[in-house]
Every structure is written in structure tokens, then in C-alpha cells.
């Protein structure tokens, strides 16, 4: 690729700094052994040796493309030759070498002995600040001075790369290029697809003959091919292994697998599919992601749109159902509803206790409620009071007494039952009139006695053995 070399940059800087014109007047062509034209130009390049220089000529035409770009052209007709060249230099009027280009070794032949020679044109594009003003070039560059092929190729590359950014390596719309099996034949469905940014259209159903052996991969080969008046996307469907390549004409081919035929003959789909229809890609994206909404469209329970973030006050006041809350706001609200140090009963195993809760086991400042019963504060108890035993048993309850009295008239009966624990006594007094009876039954626990004095009455007592009660409770805080 051509480049302004160090001596040229110094020349241009000196001239523009002194407010003098930049005057480039001559082309120099040379044939240098061992020159690799694929390498970048050496910025320290100097003028070739005299025996390597094969042609020198004045600039044929010059023009400007933009205020910072100027073109210098050399036209060699059939009278120039014969010689080979692979090096071109642009020289200023004071002999300074300004710019250099490496090219593939080229023959310039003159017409001689009835054999037609060739015409060759070479153009140098120089770009530097205020190039047009510095060189004094006032004529626009002619069409022939511009490498239109390079321009058009660059346009195709930009278009393909832009599509590649959107559609990725390969994309197909709906059933486009889908392979199906129908009566022993494989059919490729019509539609639109993109491979490496090249848009390919299958206008109608395509029938592909069945392969001689299975399984097989079915591939789509896509390239951009030049015609007389256009560049077209060309495709080929074939059985084989996918792999991009450059053909003998230098054209890049992109190969994508679209189906895999199983040993049973059934086709497996290998396409990347998007449900894009005639409404276009933008509608597909809008429907799929709902990202495109009017700035005036607010979201509701049924419509997508813009939503507002709730304030902390709105969260606590439950102000509306149109705003949203952040995780921080949500947890603040939950902490407000269930503050720290609130204890709840947990019906489950300790291992299943949910995250954010902890067993009240006396650790990390938590109260120890294992095998304890919670009693509400107030009266005899204050907040934080503790007491009791790990294993409480019931026993006697002090010395006490029970008194029962009855009065009756006529034939009737009285029944009474007393139950006590601990050392105590029972006293029953009866008075009677007429024929009647009294019965009293007592049950006891622990060592104690009953004393009953009656006349003409039947009394019974019962006894149950000593026993106890255990109470266990687990609490969560």
C-alpha cells in the first residue's frame, strides 16, 4: 500500500511551514530483485540504485478528491517499454522522494513488430492536512484517476460486514432453506437467509437428490460473484463438510451446514432460525423484546411501557400498583413488616429452617428457648426474665383442704368428687332428712390422707400412682 515516507513527510512539513507550495513533479519506476510487494512500505525508503530504475516520467495528471486528499497520475501508452517494474516513487521538484508504493512485478510492453503493446495508468493518492491548498491543485480528480473497482469492492465489504453485525454468522427467516424429506427426495424450502452477511434468496422449493450413502451433511456454499454490470450472491447446495475457502479466482466462499441427514434418512435441522415474516425485522424485534415503546406510554398490567420507581414512602404506604420497587426497597419493606428479634413457632426440622432465620439456641445474642415455654411479660414477669427447669415434673402442691356440704329433703341422693395432690385433707359434712343416700369419691396423687365422717352413708376413695408431666417447646427468633 502506498505511503508517504520519512523524507516526504519532512519535505511537506518544511514547505507548508514556510508557506511555500508542495510541488510533486515526477514518477520513478524501478525493478528491485527480492522485493516483497505484500509487505508494508519501508518508511526509511531511499531512491533505488541507478541500475534498478527502469523508467522516469513527469506527472501526467493531478487533481483533488477532498481538501486533504490529492491524486497524482502517470499514464504510459504503447510507446513506453519494454520493462518490468515492482516499485513506484513520487518525487518532488527538488529531488526529494515523497511517496513509495510496492506492486506485483508488472510488464510494460511497447508496440513493436506488429505486436500490440499495453497501456498502463498508475495513480498515487496522498493525504495530509490542507493538501489541496498546499499543492495548489484546483482541478477535481477525473474519474479515470480513481480506482472505482476498489471503491465498489469496499462498498460490498461494508454492506456485508454491516449485515454480519446484525444477523451473525448465519440466520434464516422461518422455514427458509429448511431441508425436508418428501417421497424419497430432499427438498429445500424457499425463503431468505444470511450467511456471513450475504443475503441469499431461494425463490422456490429446491429438490436435492438423495445421497448414495448415509449419514451425510448438507451444506450451503455462498459467495459474491462479479458480473458485467453487477455483483450477485451465488449459492450452491451440496453434500460435504463445511469450511470457508477462497477459489482460484480469488473469490471468498462461505460454507454453512443447514442439515444433517441421519442414518435413517431423516433430516436434522442445523439452521439458526428467527420468525421474521413480511412485516420485517424491526417488527420482529419489537414484538419479541418490546423494547421500542413511546416515551409517553406507561406500562400497565396488560400493556408494555415505561415504569416508574417507587419512593420508600410509596412502598410503606402501598400507594399504587403502577410503580416498581428495587431489591433494597423490597427488603426494607419486609424488615418493616417483620422487624428483627421477632420470634415465631417453627413446625419442621432444624435443618429446614429458612435462610434469614435462626434457632433461638442462646448463640450470637439470641435467647435460649430450647425446652422452654414462653410466658408473656406483665404482672409477675418482666421482659427478659428466665427461670424454670429443663425437665419439670408435677408433684404435690402444699397443704390444703376441700370442703363440700349438701342439704336435702325427701328421698334423694348426693354425689361429690374431690381430687388433690400433696399432703392435705378432705372434709365432707352432710345433713339429711328422710330416707336418702350420699356418695363421695376422691382421687389423689402423692402421699396424703382423706378423713370423712358420715352416718348411714356410703363413701368411696380411689388412688392413682405418682406421676409427672414433661413440656418441651422450640422457638425461633
Please describe what this structure looks like:
The structure is a single chain. By secondary structure, the chain is mostly beta strands. The chain folds into four domains: 3-146, no CATH class; 159-274, no CATH class; 308-336, no CATH class; 340-396 and 439-445 and 469-477, no CATH class. It has helices at 6-17, 131-135, 148-167, 281-289, 312-317, 327-337; strands at 3-4, 24-30, 53-58, 61-66, 69-76, 83-92, 97-108, 120-127, 170-173, 179-182, 185-188, 191-195, 198-202, 206-208, 216-226, 231-239, 245-246, 252-261, 267-269, 273-274, 308-309, 323-324, 401-406, 413-421, 425-430, 437-445, 460-463. The strands form eight sheets. It has a five-stranded antiparallel beta sheet with strand order 1-7-6-2-3. The chain is elongated. This is Phage tail protein.
Features:
477 residues, mainly beta, 4 domains, five-stranded antiparallel sheet, 6 helices, 13% helix, disordered C terminus, Phage tail protein
Helices and strands in order:
Layout: E1 3-4, H1 6-17, E2 24-30, E3 53-58, E4 61-66, E5 69-76, E6 83-92, E7 97-108, E8 120-127, H2 131-135, H3 148-167, E9 170-173, E10 179-182, E11 185-188, E12 191-195, E13 198-202, E14 206-208, E15 216-226, E16 231-239, E17 245-246, E18 252-261, E19 267-269, E20 273-274, H4 281-289, E21 308-309, H5 312-317, E22 323-324, H6 327-337, E23 401-406, E24 413-421, E25 425-430, E26 437-445, E27 460-463
Parallel strand pairs: 9-20, 21-22, 23-25, 24-26, 26-27
Antiparallel strand pairs: 1-7, 2-3, 2-6, 4-5, 5-8, 6-7, 9-12, 10-11, 11-14, 12-13, 15-16, 15-18, 17-18, 18-19
Domain Phage tail fibre protein N-terminal: 4-153
InterPro entries: Phage_tail_fibre_N
Biased composition (Low complexity): 388-449
Amino acid at each position: 500500500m502506498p505511503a508517504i515516507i520519512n523524507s516526504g513527510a519532512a519535505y511537506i512539513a518544511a514547505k507548508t511551514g514556510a508557506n511555500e507550495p508542495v510541488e510533486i513533479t515526477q514518477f520513478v519506476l524501478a525493478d528491485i530483485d527480492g522485493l516483497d510487494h505484500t509487505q508494508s512500505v519501508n518508511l526509511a525508503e531511499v531512491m533505488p540504485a541507478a541500475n534498478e530504475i527502469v523508467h522516469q516520467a513527469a506527472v501526467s495528471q493531478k487533481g483533488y478528491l477532498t481538501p486533504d486528499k490529492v491524486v497524482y497520475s502517470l499514464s504510459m501508452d504503447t510507446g513506453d517499454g519494454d520493462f518490468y517494474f515492482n516499485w513506484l516513487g513520487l518525487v518532488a521538484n527538488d529531488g526529494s522522494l515523497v511517496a513509495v508504493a510496492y506492486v506485483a512485478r508488472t510488464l510494460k510492453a511497447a508496440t513493436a513488430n506488429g505486436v500490440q503493446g499495453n497501456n498502463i495508468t498508475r495513480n498515487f493518492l496522498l493525504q495530509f492536512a490542507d493538501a489541496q491548498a498546499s499543492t495548489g491543485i484546483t482541478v477535481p480528480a477525473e474519474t479515470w484517476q480513481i480506482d472505482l473497482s476498489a471503491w465498489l469492492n469496499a462498498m460490498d465489504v461494508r454492506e456485508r460486514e454491516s449485515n454480519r453485525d446484525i444477523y451473525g454468522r448465519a440466520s434464516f427467516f422461518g422455514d427458509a432453506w429448511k431441508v425436508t424429506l418428501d417421497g424419497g427426495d430432499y427438498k429445500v424450502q424457499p425463503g431468505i437467509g444470511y450467511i456471513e452477511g450475504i443475503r441469499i434468496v431461494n425463490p422456490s422449493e429446491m429438490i436435492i437428490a438423495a445421497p448414495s450413502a448415509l449419514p451425510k451433511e448438507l451444506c450451503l456454499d455462498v459467495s459474491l460473484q462479479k458480473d458485467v454490470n453487477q455483483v450477485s450472491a451465488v449459492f450452491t447446495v451440496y453434500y460435504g463438510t463445511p469450511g470457508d475457502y477462497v477459489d482460484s479466482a480469488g473469490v471468498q466462499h462461505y460454507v454453512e451446514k443447514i442439515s444433517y441427514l441421519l442414518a435413517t434418512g431423516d433430516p436434522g435441522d442445523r439452521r439458526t432460525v428467527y420468525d421474521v415474516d413480511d412485516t420485517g425485522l424491526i417488527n420482529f424485534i419489537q414484538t419479541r423484546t418490546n423494547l421500542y415503546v413511546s416515551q409517553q406510554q406507561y406500562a400497565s398490567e396488560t400493556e408494555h411501557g415505561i415504569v416508574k420507581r417507587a419512593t420508600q414512602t410509596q412502598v410503606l404506604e402501598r400507594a399504587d400498583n403502577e410503580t416498581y420497587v428495587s431489591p433494597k426497597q423490597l427488603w426494607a419493606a419486609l424488615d418493616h413488616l417483620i422487624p428483627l428479634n421477632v420470634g415465631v413457632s417453627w413446625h419442621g426440622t432444624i435443618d429446614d429452617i429458612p435462610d434469614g432465620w435462626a434457632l433461638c439456641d442462646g448463640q450470637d445474642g439470641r435467647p435460649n428457648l430450647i425446652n422452654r415455654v414462653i410466658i408473656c411479660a406483665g404482672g409477675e414477669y418482666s421482659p427478659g426474665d428466665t427461670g424454670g427447669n429443663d425437665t419439670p415434673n408435677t408433684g404435690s402442691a402444699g397443704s390444703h383442704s376441700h370442703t363440700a356440704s349438701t342439704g336435702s329433703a325427701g328421698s334423694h341422693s348426693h354425689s361429690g368428687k374431690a381430687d388433690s395432690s400433696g399432703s392435705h385433707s378432705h372434709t365432707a359434712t352432710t345433713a339429711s332428712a328422710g330416707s336418702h343416700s350420699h356418695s363421695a369419691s376422691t382421687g389423689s396423687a402423692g402421699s396424703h390422707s382423706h378423713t370423712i365422717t358420715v352416718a348411714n352413708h356410703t363413701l368411696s376413695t380411689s388412688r392413682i400412682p405418682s406421676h409427672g408431666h414433661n413440656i418441651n417447646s422450640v422457638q425461633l427468633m
